[in-house]
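Page 42, continued from yesterday. The earlier attempt failed because a stray header line got pasted into the input along with the sequence. Redoing it now with the clean sequence only.
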Amino acid sequence: MFPGLVQTERYMRAVFGTLPNITAEEIDRRVADRAMRQAVLRREEPAPPRVWALVDEAALRRPVADAAVMHEQCMHALEVSRMPTVQLAVLPYSAGGHIGLSGACTIVERDGRARIVNLDDLADGRVSEEPAIVKRVALRFRLLQHEALPSTLSRDMIARIDEELWNGTAPAGARALTALPTAGSA
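This time it went through. Structure tokens are written below.
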């Protein structure tokens, strides 16, 4: 799925709604918590954090919700990807199988403090400051970054898939109908 920091409220609700036995109140709480975390991207003081986010091409194509929600989600991801402190990259299907398919992660680096990681899994995830785990996750993330498309091509792919699948209209500056290079044409 799209990383939590770039999810719209309606997309979040659709994702949280897949959890078994979840109540409307719990969905509301989780959405509010995630929206609060997203606010750091737009704050002025202290400066917003640098964010490097990866999204698998499957997340662009999987109909987590109806077409209107998916279109809104893709447009929001494009908007966030243009923020000066955010780097959003797509891992295309052409990357094949990769370690990121094992689950999502978040790596937090803070000035003068040890890095921590949040590892998402079916049990909602866990946080670790264990240096060996943090190092292993950081290395795997760097490997995934090398498999991902550059920013411009990632935005082009998001816009193209949005137009193809969710009947959206690409925003100005996106080359929605630009063919991405394939192994045979690159």
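Notes: The beta strands are 51-56, 86-91, 105-110, 113-119, 126-128.
Reminder to self: strip header lines before submitting.
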